[in-house]
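To whoever is covering the structure queue this week,

Two jobs came back overnight. Logging them here so there's a record in the thread.

Job A:
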Amino acid sequence: MKNAKIIRESVNGMEAVYMIAKSGQVSFTIIPARAGKLFFDIINPDPLVQISCTGDATSIGFAAGETRHNSAMTMAMKYVSQDVRQSSKGKVIITTVEGVQGIRVRHVVIAPHNCRGVRVYTDVCNQSDFDITLEAISSVNISGITPYTDDVGRDRLMLHRFRSRWSAEGRHEVRSIEDLLLEPSWANFGVRCEKFGSVGSMPVRGYFPFAAVEDKEVGVIWGLSCACSSSWQIEAVRIDKRLSISAGLADYEFGHWRKTLKSGDEFVTPEVYVTAGRCDFAGICDRLLDVQRDKLLREQRVTSLPAIFNEYCTTWGKPSEKVIGRLLNVINGKDFEYFVIDAGWYADFVKGWQDNMGEWDVALDLFPDGIKKAVDMIEDAGMKAGIWFELEVVGAVSDMANDTAHLLTRDGKVIISGTRRFWDMRSEWVTEYLSKKVIDFLNENGFKYIKIDYNDTIGIGCDGAESPGEGLRACVNATKDFYRRIRDNVPDIAIEVCSSGGHRLEPGFMELADYVSFSDAHEEKEIPVIAADLQNLVLTQKSQIWAVLRKDDELKRIAYSVCAGMYGVLCISGDVCDLAADKWQFALNGVSFYKKVSPIIITGRTERFGHFQNSNRELKDYQATVRYGRDGKALVIVHSFDHEGTQKITIPLMGEFRIADKFETGDHKVTIAGSELTMEFEETFDALALLLDCD
């Protein structure tokens, strides 16, 4: 952009770059510090705030119905000021722009101390004398990708995403910009837009709110993660030589979102975490996780991880005082910190448990002495007691299903998804009701752990606001406020966020959690693949992974399950009462090994080896990871999948190590020669874990 004013601000080993055109339009990008020759002079302005309202003109080039990018309202926003300050949060850059409609917008960049990413959001204020109805507003728009060439950058830009389905979370996808038809046309006309996201109250359904753009020629990657717990969108847009990528709330076309601002009203968007680095793809993911690390509560800055026992895959929704007593006889004194009573503790003899959420009365046929007796038993066994709730929903057969005055509606009709209705979490009555049923219940019975599940979505949104999407946003934010209320009012509580496994694995929900359910793939062979994929998106100290043990399991299957659990927080379940003594002892050896290596799980960085699995349901060859800790130690996890004959695996190591400890069954002929680790697997679907120390 010739003759533009360029402002470059240092932020956490990067530079935030603002280009102010003569017209007053201002754009934003971020680059690694000292990352090579730049061609800012040929970049056209692509405004840092993408905003549109009812009645606004879309961009020329057939954009209507696809994107509001560079709408008339956006292009009318002009630079007003920039304020750079230091605060307790870190460096803060506030860039203010204003449009002819009397809308003033602040684009805020926060660079936390000791972090390799930044947090970006937008604050909109209506300074006019009339109402404005927003239909699109970005949290961030990174433009000018790539600034490292003076041409269109053909065959050098790749878009990375993570797809997600139930029990198949976190599948990495990478496609070239050309493959996505995002290269400019012959006339630089016609908007190119790749728009993706999630609509509803399960924000990780279809995609994770993540995107990265890689310039292969210079080895620079731009990455972002959207901390939006309701409907969200990401757009990769191209009109001329340079690509832009924006993220934030889903707009009107995509997510049915409108928000009316009266004169003097303000609206703040969700945060987006942003980074740029000269690194590999795993490195850019780790840089984004830095922002999640920065947001950890004081009590979450741990140096070791717990082992958790959850009885769900033991009883499948039929817990009882009697069964818990049997389990405690086996688990007592065996290195478990938490014992979680999962779904079904409230089951009605006639109504059952799967569709009876809402009343939350203890089933006295299951717990004849009350659930406090079970909590006391768990504590006497040296563990903290946990309990399952799906507090936002009302089951079809619950008496509360008739309380339509406090249930979410759309177009005046109660929203029914499968067999679930949904509380209106914005309602004071609902908040007080749940405070008694959940918070008082936790305190009265001495629970120190709550697993909060959520097993369906309300879809596009609900009544009670200017649009279904805004109703959804407000309701989900009220849910998150209730999570905070639990933490504030239950001493020493640990919160697990679950949503049919991994449907809420986005930063906004994850920052409220001590632990998050990685998936509902309870005892499937693809668990190590999903768990390893999620190390790119979820802090390992929060990613809780099932290791379900069955009485008929061979030792190699127990090794397979327990080793998979070492990709995060190990959660044991299954037939522990019926395991043969040697099998149970072998599993406990795995728990002890996990506790020993947990500091590496928390602080390490993973290198991954093995072929990409085209099918999670038909795994072939092997998967191996080396997680390097900060103290010269490393954790190696290897899973052998379907193969023929003896499988010999060789893994390069970053330095010279010796084997300090191992968890395996049989002899895999593990050796280290120089900086190469070699092992053999005679059988399929076997696994091992190694603790390495500096030689």
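Job B:
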Amino acid sequence: MYEILVMIEGMSLFISLGIVILLLKEKPSRPQMLLLLASVCSFVNGLGYYYELTAKSLEVALVGIKLEYIGTAFVIPITFLFVAGCCNYEISTKFKFFILIIAFLIHGLSATIGQNTLLYKEYYFELQCEIPHIVIAKAPLYYAVIAYNWTMMLCQIGMALKYYLKYRSKDGLGIVYACLAYFIPIITVPIGLSGALEGYDPVPISQQMTAWWMFLMISRFRIFDSVQNAKETIIDNITEGFFVVDLNKKLLFVNGVAEGLFPEIDKKETQDAIIERLISQNKETITIADKRIAIKVSPFYDRHMLKGYTIWLSDKTDEYAYTQKLIELKEQAEQANKAKSVFLANMSHEIRTPMNAILGMSEIMLRGELPDKVRENTLSIQGAGKSLLGIINDILDFSKIETGKMELVNINYKVASIVHNIVSLMGVRVKEKNLDFIVEVDEEIPAELCGDEMRIQQVMINLLGNAVKFTEKGYIKLRIWHQKSDEKTLLYVDVEDTGSGIKKENLPGLFNSYERVDLIKNRGIEGTGLGLPICKSLVEAMGGKITIESTYGVGSIFSFFVVQKTVNPEPIGAWDKVVITKHTDKIRPQFHAPDTRILVVDDTKINLKVAVGLLKTLQVVADTAESGRECIEKIQNQEYDMIFMDHMMPEMDGIETTRHIRNMKGDYYKNVPIIALTANAVNGAKEMFLEEGFQDFVSKPIDMEQLCNCIKKYAKNIIILQEND
């Protein structure tokens, strides 16, 4: 049975295609053209159902249904206009637009089946039956569409009967006979809806039969023979304006749309000027009567001989408005991005300036003679400052967070060093809240690993910081252990607290950017909502995973692991008994540069003090300038081996000052090394400074090693190396 139905559907498609081909061979009048379009729609509808009938899956069946609806949506309004034209009924433009809009709405609803439930509430594919088919639960709007189609078909039958009763002509009788074909779909629709045919839908073939019958009746009664009517109908229905001119650019014909755009075209004195203007503006878009009109000039031929030109006028107003809106949105996005960059640069500058003082002064102190206790405290200040700086860098660097481009710097590090740093930094905060701080470290962890030490500490600090913030009594527990995997070590960390805990429904959004849970309860606790998302990104970048277990009102356990390379497999042992000697000795410079002349330019006195203090440890006697203008005055009176230039200064900033120096006459001003010494350290800052004529870049807070490298690089001929260098 199934094979017979497929064969019948295939044969009906060939018949429908044959009718379309026959109509195409004719020189049709306007009604015949409508009949051709209706036949095409009927063929498309049948093709879609053939596709659905032979489908073996839901996806293929849905494609077939959507194809069916292309024909179904337009065949009814087209045949309505066809019958109205046959019966000499004038259909208003508004009503034509109305039925056309309805057709497009039906098409739109069908094209988005699966994304809306307006036609079909739900559906599934039934394969285990004689006729594989899609089973559909129809929505109320589906029946509204059927009722609309029935109404349109009955109206056509009514128009045909009225026309015949009025004129009693042969044409009228033929139209009545043609419209009787509508009883085929009217009868078959209820049969299809009832499901009596067990998966087979007779409606598509009934629509094709309707088109066959109409074609037969039109041919039988020879209703149409006016080629000129067809030409006029086509011209009237073209939505684009056009002029037809001969080889001498004389007007032959103009349609109504073009006349509406150029009402003065009827005047002989302006006609030639309009045509000449339009031809000269071929492929351009111009403004006419507040509309954006695209012009295209196309030649036309008669038996391969050029006879003239057609000037097409296409309304691109909506497209132009859309394009302008896109340009406006692009400009707004660029402005917003620029504003964000300026904000980040300003924030980086404002935060790094005091951090420069903290880290710089601690560096200067550590390079002098200090009592052991003071040195230990200074090291703690410096370690805490560096950890804070690392966190600030990530929070300020929004572009890095948003794109997930986390840069990892893998180095060899001692696990005991991390534990000491974390306990030293977080122990004070825990004690301030009268909490117990429990630290459990697996003594079998390899003593030395390779990975991003700073990132691991950052994750641990974030998690411990959160634990302290949300815990009022009890304890904070840090547990570190490991698992071996070939030459690698899986380093595990647990942070447990007895704090407020997290509700179960809030856990899924815990790692979302800028999102904080239980805001009412935690409104007095500071935080940006970036900490946990940063932790997640960092852990995943290091090949690990972060998880959470929490009981509301009892506490939480944050756990993560990262993959590290094993450098020294010797067990760490008791971490609190490991002596960390990395920074406890007095820091000694690798070289001296007493004859190096350096100018430091900065509008902040504390920054000058830090820079001069650090340079002093290298026996450099540095000169200072508090503005760009003062810098220019000083280099005119004395030549320096290099200049460290701040960026953000009032009146004349570092970039403007550098440009001014580079434009001064003399080789010295063009070649003197100028190093950007700035708190603007956001993405792309270094590249910007190099493009503006700077030789190098040192960010604040000043890293002594980076500072020394710059001096070595640009003053290598006048420094005195130490024996151990």
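Note for Job B: The radius of gyration is 41 Å.

Please reply-all if you pick these up so we don't duplicate work.
Q.
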